[in-house]
Write a structure and sequence with these properties.
Helix content is 43%, strand content 22%. By secondary structure, the protein is of the alpha/beta class. The chain is elongated. Pfam families: TrmK (PF04816). GO terms for molecular function: tRNA (adenine(22)-N1)-methyltransferase activity.
Length: 238
């Protein structure tokens, strides 16, 4: 992977960048995504944010190597703190856990103008992001699920708007977990992911049945039973 050829995961992320956007890539690592976006005229300009010194220096070097110093600025800082309010109209946060992405969004709420497009690619716990989007009145526009190198990733795209547009009142908890748009599309990768998750949770449930009946273990047991039931109702498990 480099600035000319992204991984399948990041290429999918890049496909949702509005043409001509000012892009902010948070946790940019080597800055491959912003370099690719500018070189391919997906973004007019970009900001690469990185909090760790090593990846920050790698991003600086990559931008220079690509000859894009006049169009991409690399900034060192935590999360959205590298931005001024309204400075970027598209923000990508990819390759982190959903809990961390949610934390970045929550801590940076004052920086978000509400005019941005958010493109979020959690490795796990996408449900945390969906809940944050609803709580903060961001509308889920697109969801995508894909498999690369035997790992399954989800992409969530959101803009300010009606937060419950794609959700059903009677299935809200299930749709937060599985993704309302992904549930409707019900792709092979979607089914594979949740069949695997169900098997994993059934193994954990079996282990818990042999453990002491503490309040914590009983709580975990009930939570897992509920999740397994939600998956069985939503996914074809033949």
């Amino acid at each position: 992977m480099n600035e000319q050829k992204l991984s399948q995961r990041l290429e999918a992320v890049s496909s949702y960048i509005p043409k001509g956007a000012v892009l902010a890539d948070i946790g940019s690592d080597h800055a491959y995504l912003p370099c690719y976006a500018v070189l391919n005229e997906l973004a007019e300009e970009a900001i690469a944010g990185e909090v760790v010194e090593g990846p920050f220096q790698s991003a600086v070097e990559q931008v220079a190597k690509s000859g894009l110093e006049n169009r991409i600025e690399v900034r060192k800082g935590s999360g959205l703190s590298v931005l001024e309010k309204g400075e970027a109209d598209c923000i990508t946060i990819a390759g982190m856990g959903g809990t961390l992405i949610t934390k970045i969004l929550e801590e940076g709420r004052s920086i978000l103008s509400g005019k941005e497009r958010l493109i979020l690619q959690p490795n796990v716990n996408a449900n945390n992001i969906r809940k944050w989007l609803i709580d903060n009145e961001w509308q889920l526009l697109h969801e995508q699920i894909l498999e690369e190198d035997e790992k399954i990733y989800e992409i969530l795209v959101a803009e300010k708007g009606a937060p419950l547009l794609h959700y059903s009142k009677d299935k809200l908890e299930t749709e937060l977990l599985l993704g309302p748009i992904l549930m409707r599309e019900n792709s092979d990768v979607f089914e594979k992911k949740w069949k695997n998750e169900r098997k994993h949770w059934e193994r954990v449930l079996s282990d818990l049945s042999k453990a002491p009946g503490t309040p914590e273990n009983l709580r975990k047991t009930e939570e897992l039973k509920m999740k397994i039931k939600e998956i069985e109702e939503a996914v074809n498990n033949e």
